[in-house]
Every structure is written in C-alpha cells, then in structure tokens.
C-alpha cells in the first residue's frame, strides 16, 4: 500500500490490522493525525514501513511482533514519550530505523544499538536525555550510521561507539555530552567519513596522535568540532594545521568558536576542490586571505566572521561560483566594495559589517545580477558616496515573496549543514538558524553615504528590515514609500 504524497488525512483506522498480508506500507507526506493504532503490531508480514512527514502524535507503538521488518521511518511527526526497552526486541532483520524530528524523550534503550542487522539508527531532533549506556556485542555490530544530534543526552560518550569498526557516519552534535574525547579513539574507525561533536560540553584532545598526523583519518569528509574546548590542536602555537589541506575528501570543516590564531593555511582555500563548508568564525586568525582560490573550488558556505583578518578581499573569491553564504564581518579588511562578487549568482547572504571598507559601492563594469541575495549587511564601514540604485535593482530576490528556508547541502550520504547567520537589529544581535529566505534584510548604517535616498528601495517589496541610520541626508515622507 503506497499512499505517499497524497491528501489522505485524519486518524489511521484500527481496521488496518485486517490487511494481514500487507508487506509494504508507505503513508509518507500525507496529513494523518492522532495516535498510531496499536493494531499495527498485528501486521506481522510488514517488511517496509514509511510513515514520515505526517502529524502522528502520542506514544510509539511496539514493533517487536514484526519479525520481517527491514525498514522503519517515522521521521518528522509529533510522537511523544519514551521508547520502552522491549519495543524492538527480536527484530533480527531490521536494517534502518529513523525516528528523527519528533518529541520523544527519556533514555535511549541500549537494545536499539544491539539489533544484529541494524545499519542506520537516526534519533536526531528529539528530547532524549540521561546517559547512554555501554552496549555489548560490538564485534558483530553492522552499524554504519548513528545520528543522535540535537537532543539532551548527558554524561560521557560510550566507549562502545568507538569500537564499531564499520561506522561511517557519527553525529552527536548539540547535546550535553561531557568529558574528554581523545582523537586516537576515533582513529580506530577507518571508514568514518562524518564526525560531529560540536556544541556539547566536551573537550577534544589530539595529543595522543603521533606527530598530530590528521592524515591518519583516510576517509574523513565532514569534521565538526565547534565549541569543543580545543586545546593543542594539532600544533596549537595556535596555527590551524596544514594537515587539513591534505584530506582527499574533506567537504565540511567547522572550527568556529575556538582560539586559533596565526594565518589561515593557504591550502584550505587553494587546492581543496571538495570543500563545501568552511567555518572558522570567532577565532583570532590574523593576516590576509590568500588570493589563490582555484576555479575548481566548490565552496557553498564561508564564514570568517569575528577574527583579525586584514588586507583586501581576494578577487579570486569570484571563482567560488556555487557560494551561497559569505560572512567576512567583524574583521579588519581595508578595501573597496568587492564588485567582483556580483559574478556569483548563487549568493544569498553577504555580511561585510564592521570592517574598514571605504570608497563608493557602485559597480559600473559589472552586469551580473544577485538574483538570490536577500540578506546584506554593510554596516559600520567607511563607505562613501551615493547608495546606488542599479545595485539595489539587481537584488531580485527582494522583489518577490518566498516562504521557505534552505540548508547548504554538500554530500552523498544525506547529511545537511545547518546554516546560521547573526544580524544586528537596533543594536541587538539576532541569530537566524537554517536561514529562512522569507527574511530579507539590508543594513548600510554607520557609513558615510550621502545624497538622496534611492527610489529603488521602494521596489524591494519583501524587505523585512532596513537600517539607514547615520545617512547623511534625512528621509522625507514623499521620498521613500515601502
């Protein structure tokens, strides 16, 4: 029975248990509500169950009678309560369990990790708390993916996890895990390509790896260590180690909110054609950005906000033709407005606030449109002259209404990087998570612009936030009507 992507709604009837021979049930992306019927456990021939993207609520029913089950997804519903330890007992054939994006809570049963055939376990974006217990039968485990991110899990990360030799994807970010993680523990996982430990109460220690050789992680693509109290990593005189430039498959590197200083390794921006996300925000990085960015670079997200970087904004950034988010705010760049960025049609967010940019911002020789741009922050610089109407007209995203949000996607395993950007509204910082395109913002305050307010501002019909404070000419009522 496949009713996915239809308008079926209401409560799933108990009478579904009469379909005794049913083996496949797909009701995803419908409008079903209320609790799942307990009678679903009578469908003992079920192999494939997909009930994701509905509005099911209430407790999770028991599946232990579905001995043939191989695939179960209840992603993105409103399920509540705990998972009893016996709900999945005896499911020796199940390969994938996805209960992500619900409101489940309590302790995660250790029995979930010991299902003999299980390859993927996704429990992210719930309310699970308490401590994870160590689990047995590690040597026979088939687990390749574990996603427990965005819960309230506490205590140390079980040592058992670091003995799962087949593990490829481990995402534990945004919890309350504590203790110290030695990266030589992770080094055992030779197939691991995604590791997320960000935003916990952890400390990450690399001193146990010989010569701090990060190339000993041959399969690593995504490494997220934000807010991990990094100490000596991996040199620390404070320089980001050149070994990061040698990862053959690295696609995501998030080292934000630490204490790195010195220069950004040239190889990160020059050679690495696989890198999609680079977040080095809120460190103490110095010097300048090398103007050697390759035309093969595929960056989607670059955040260098809150460092001590100076010099000019490198024109070779224009080679990043897939760039969506560029945040160079709160640094010491001393340059003219980077007109060459007009050639990046995919750019959605441009943050250049609190630098030393100077001169006018018209771009007479650039004809490209910023068709996707919807958040622009040029505040607190030294820009002068007129606020140019032609540039404003090129921001076509602000001319029509859009009501969705987006992620930067950059992998082949279904993972997503959660975008965020901090804007300033009336002196108060506001952090936007999973940057919504419905939010449009323009801040050119605290510069030295002069002359008339451009009439083109009136055509930006979906503009939510506009800051022109300290503009050299007052706005008269008939000048600007938005």
TrEMBL record:
Domain Disease resistance R13L4/SHOC-2-like LRR: 2-226
SUPFAM superfamilies in the record: L domain-like, RNI-like
Subcellular locations according to the entry: Membrane
Keywords noted in UniProt: Glycoprotein, Leucine-rich repeat, Membrane, Receptor, Repeat, Signal, Transmembrane, Transmembrane helix
Entry keyword Transcription regulation: no
Source organism superkingdom: Eukaryota
Membrane topology: Single-pass type I membrane protein
Gene Ontology cellular-component annotations: membrane
Main localization (coarse): membrane
Any one Pfam family match given in the protein's UniProt record, by short name: LRR_6
Coiled-coil boundaries: none
Listed name of the protein: Disease resistance R13L4/SHOC-2-like LRR domain-containing protein
Native source organism of the sequence: Psophocarpus tetragonolobus
């Amino acid at each position: 029975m496949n009713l996915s992507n239809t308008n079926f709604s209401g409560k799933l009837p108990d009478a579904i248990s009469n379909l005794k021979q049913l083996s496949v049930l797909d009701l995803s992306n419908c409008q079903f509500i209320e609790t799942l019927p307990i009678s679903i456990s009578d469908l003992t021939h079920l192999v494939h169950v997909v009930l994701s993207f509905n509005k099911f609520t209430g407790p999770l029913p028991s599946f232990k009678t579905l001995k043939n089950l191989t695939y179960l997804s209840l992603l993105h519903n409103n399920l509540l309560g705990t998972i009893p330890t016996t709900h999945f007992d005896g499911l020796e054939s199940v390969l994938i369990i996805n209960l992500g994006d619900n409101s489940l809570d309590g302790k995660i049963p250790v029995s979930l990790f010991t299902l003999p055939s299980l390859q993927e376990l996704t429990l992210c974006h719930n309310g699970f708390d308490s401590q994870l217990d160590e689990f047995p039968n590690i040597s026979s485990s088939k687990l390749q993916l574990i996603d427990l991110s965005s819960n309230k899990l506490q205590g140390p990360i079980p040592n058992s996890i670091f003995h799962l030799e087949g593990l490829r994807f481990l995402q534990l970010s945004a919890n309350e895990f504590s203790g110290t993680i030695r990266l030589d523990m992770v080094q055992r996982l030779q197939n691991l390509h995604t590791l997320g430990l960000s935003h916990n109460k952890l400390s990450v220690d690399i001193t146990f790896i010989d010569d701090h050789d990060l190339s000993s992680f041959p399969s690593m693509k995504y490494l997220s260590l934000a807010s991990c109290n990094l100490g000596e990593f991996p040199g620390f005189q404070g320089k980001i180690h050149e070994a990061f430039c040698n990862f053959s498959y690295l696609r995501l590197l998030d080292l934000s909110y630490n204490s790195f200083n010195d220069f950004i390794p040239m190889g990160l921006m020059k050679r690495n054609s696989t890198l999609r996300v680079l977040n080095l925000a809120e460190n103490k990085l110095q010097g300048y950005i090398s103007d050697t960015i390759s035309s093969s670079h595929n960056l989607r997200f670059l955040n260098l906000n809150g460092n001590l970087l100076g010099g000019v904004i490198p024109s070779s950034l224009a080679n990043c033709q897939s760039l969506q988010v560029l945040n160079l705010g709160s640094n010491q760049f001393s340059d003219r407005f980077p007109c060459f960025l007009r050639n990046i049609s995919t750019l959605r967010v441009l943050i250049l606030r609190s630098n030393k940019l100077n001169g006018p911002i018209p771009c007479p020789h650039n004809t490209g449109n910023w068709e996707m741009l919807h958040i622009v922050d040029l505040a607190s610089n030294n820009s002068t002259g007129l606020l140019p109407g032609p540039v404003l007209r090129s921001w076509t995203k602000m001319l029509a209404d859009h009501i969705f949000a987006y992620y930067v996607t950059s992998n082949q395993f279904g993972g997503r990087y959660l975008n965020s950007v901090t804007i300033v509204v009336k002196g108060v910082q506001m952090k936007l998570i999973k940057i919504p395109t419905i939010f449009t913002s323009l801040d050119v305050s605290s510069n030295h612009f002069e002359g008339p307010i451009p009439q083109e501002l009136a055509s930006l019909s979906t503009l939510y936030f506009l800051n022109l404070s300290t503009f050299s000419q007052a706005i008269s009522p008939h000048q600007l009507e938005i």
